[in-house]
Amino acid sequence: MATTQGARRDGGVRTRTPNPPLGGRRVLTAAEDALLAALRSRILDGRADGAVEDGADVEALADRMVAALPSVKHEADALVGPFYDTPTLAAWRGVTRQALSKAVAKRDLVGLKIGDGSLVFPSFQFGVSGAPLPHLRQVLALVDPDRIDPWGSALWLNTVADEFGGTTAAEALRAGRVEQVLAAARRAAHAWAADA
Predict the structure, then answer these.
(1) 140-149, pLDDT tens digit by residue?
(2) Out of 50-54, 73-77, 124-128, least confident range
(3) Which H or E run contains 10?
(4) Do 156 and 196 touch, CB atoms closer than 8 A?
(5) Distance in angstroms (rounded) separating the CA atoms of residues 113 and 116
(6) What one-character DSSP code corresponds to residue 112?
(7) Is omega for the bond preceding 82 within 30 degrees of 0, making it cis?
(8) What is the DSSP secondary structure assignment for residue 7, as one 8-state letter?
(9) Are strands 7-10 and 13-16 parallel, antiparallel or unpaired?
C-alpha cells in the first residue's frame, strides 16, 4: 500500500494513509526509493540469477515480495517491531491463519495482542527467507513459562545485551548460540521470579 510518513491512531495501532497522487502518480518515499535501489543492485550483482526466468509470473513474485514487508505500525515499533499482521504473514510464509495460531500456541512464533484484539508478529523473529527463530519454543518456555507476558518475552529477545556480545538474544539464536541464550533465559527467569 502506498503510504505517507504520517499516520493516524486506531485502537493502539497507527494505520497508514495513502499518499495523494501527483499528476496521477504517487511519489516514492526515500525509503521506498532505497528499497528499489537495493533490489536492483542485488539483481545486477547476480543474486537473483535463475530466480526470474522469461515467462515468470512477475506480478505474483512482486506480490510475495511485498507481503514479506512488515506493514503494521505500532507504538512499540522501536522496541520490538516492525510487525506483520496475520493476513500478511500468512501470505508471505504461504500458510493459513490457523497454522499461525497453532505456531503461536506451540511457542514456535511470538504473537502479540494489540488494542483491537488482533495478533501482530514482530519481524525480528524471522530470517530473510521467513524461517522463524530456531529454538524459540525452549527459550519462551524458560523466560515466560506461564505465558503471562508475551510482550516482555519479545522485548527480552530483541534487546541488545552485553551477554550476547552486543547483539540480541534473537540474533544469538540465529547465529547458533543456543546454549548461551538458554542459560541467559534461565538467569532472566530466576531474576524476574525473585523480583515478584
Answers:
(1) 999 999 999 9
(2) 73-77
(3) strand 7-10
(4) no
(5) 8
(6) E
(7) yes
(8) E
(9) antiparallel
Residue type, 162: D
Task: Count the neighbouring beta carbons within 10 Å of the beta carbon of residue 51.
Answer: 9
Label residue 106 by pLDDT band (50, 70, 90).
very high
- For the record, the C-alpha cell of 177 comes out as 548460540
Find, among 150, 155, 15, 5, the residue nearest to 71 by Cα: 15
Biggest alpha carbon–alpha carbon distance for the chain = 62
- DSSP assignment string, 125-156: GB-TTSPBPTTHHHHHHHH-TT---HHHHHHH
What one-character-per-residue DSSP string does 11-60 give?
Answer: TTEEEE-PPPPBTTBPPPPHHHHHHHHHHHHHHHTTTTTTTS-TT--HHH
Distance between alpha carbon 61 and the CA centroid of its chain, in Å?
20
What is the grid cell recorded at 10? 486506531
Strand ranges for 53-122 from DSSP E:
73-74, 83-85, 112-113, 119-122
φ, ψ (nearest 5 deg) of residue 83: -125, 155
